[in-house]
Amino acid sequence: ICAYFTIGFGIVVFLASAAGADWDYTQGGLTATAFVLGAFTSMLSGYLGMKVAVYSNVRTTISAQKAGWTACFNTAFRAGAVMGFALCGLGMIVLYIALVAFKGTYSTDWGRMTECITGYGLGGSCIAMFGRVGGGIYTKAADVGADLVGKVVHGIPEDDPRNPATIADNVGDNVGDVAGMGSDLFGSFAEATCAALVIGSASNIEDPWGALLFPVAVSAVGVFVCLIASFIATDILPVKKETDVEMALKTQLISTTFLMLPAVYVLASALLPDVLPINKVNGDNATIDMKPWMAFMCVGAGVVGGLIIGLITEYYTSHSYAPVRELADSCRTGAATNIIYGVALGYKSAVIPVVILSGVIYLSFGLLDLYGVALAAIGMLSNLATGLSIDVYGPVCDNAGGIAEMAELDPSVREKTDALDAAGNTTAAIGKGFAIGSAALVSLALFGAFVTRVKEKSDGVIFGNGVNMLEPLTFAFLIIGGMIPFWFAALTMKSVGLAAMEMVYEVERQFKEKPHLLDENPSERPDYDACIQISTKASLREMVAPGAMVIFTPLLTGTFFGVNAVCGLLVGSLIASVQLAISMSNSGGAWDNAKKYVERASPDSELQGKGSDVHKAAVVGDTVGDPFKDTSGPALNIVMKLMAVLSLVFADYFYSINDGTGVFK
Question: Is it the case that residue 510 has pLDDT exceeding 80?
Fold first, then answer.
């Protein structure tokens, strides 16, 4: 289905790009080619990730059964590393080959060349939309259905082989958490690089090739840094007991961050000239003389800012700290207080990350205008290989636990995989924090690239003195843009609810028609395929409306109301999406770990442990949080980025309609 979409929308990209360039079919063809390359690279990365995850799940279970903590952890971590390094390597090599090929066509017209390459980011982001939204609906429909009927109604574990939804739940972890997160972060990498290339290509030097490749080189050095740091977790400081797991994963993030800083400084000194004039986006033909240390500061701000956002996310979502323990305690008075506490925790958790993001933007914007913001986004994504390794580690451990439960292995195996999975839940939340922070910076950088492109196309007539947000049309669409994330979240949440209801009815039907399914040693086998079909059909059906909304909103706005309206739309959606994405993701992560904290409690304690009323309240919170943290929250990253990169790719087309004022001039 993604392939059909890519070919169909590729034709739209070709026609619109050619029309915007006075029917230059070469430009249209190259932009469409870059779009197809980005889309298929994203698909291939997700496919490889799922393939490796499926092979690694059972290996992790066997390691937990036969070997100690070190082998068990290393198996899951290395599975994630395959996805992380494959995605980064594929993304960079395809982008570099495309740049070299396009350079042969536009040997001196750097602006035209980088404009064509923006299709690469658009392709990656479109597939990320399907991976995140479709994958999120698939996995959460199964998860919510398995939890509600299995745990709450019948008191059996979600991974119990008697539960008809258990296979769909485990499959969904791979679809949503592996392929979805991979395509999301691939899109961020591609778009951040494209934004930096577009803004950087406007510099006033004769041959900016080395300077243009600086953003790609930062990502390339990041791969080697992540490769070196990966040995810390697996060999230098291996996991030997349960308490080492979370620290090992956190050490990965911290070590890659601090190893990146000197590497970037050396790279900036080697690749960039002593002075590189960068055109300011906001101002009439004004320039900034960029020095290598300025580029280093911008990238460094992104690297360190990403780490701080990750650690703040951990504080609010790990049961090692007070917020989640307070949330678990609120379950003693029922599900309602648990949900009230969880929503409040999510809102509160957005405060510090937003302040950090604002600080990174202020510093990088102040130094190098919006080119600095693009470099900060690339800095935040520079340890992408490690971030993805840690992200994929989570669902691998989750599925390993599911396999242990279904195969009825010794309870000690499940305890081991659960401990690995609990750490994986926290690190997955950290990964989502990184993804949201980088998406905000990427979106702002793409907005800058869009303004740069329109300004160049109009010879400074439009946006010559920057974007005026107090223009009536711009301000009106600023409000509309702020509404878009809420509309999107409503569509995706309702989709999960509808699919989960179908799943609940199907599981209940099977329990009624096959009453012996709930026996200790059932004589009948559940129909797992029926539940898998519900998740598959629901995800394909329900992802159409939110996907169409995000794709067509900027296209229709630019076509009918012009580029000023698009500016308002992009800024409004960015501001609202960041707050909503952080709060939803962290609420969901906290509810999940609060449930795990209750499950670890002894029956004699205040939290009463598994099977108690307190546990049932915690399960309800976790079930509500599932679409928060795995569907709507993370998918808002795509809303920010996809709308911005679409606007950039179609900038020339928008300008071609009544000089950028739209049909309703």
Answer: yes
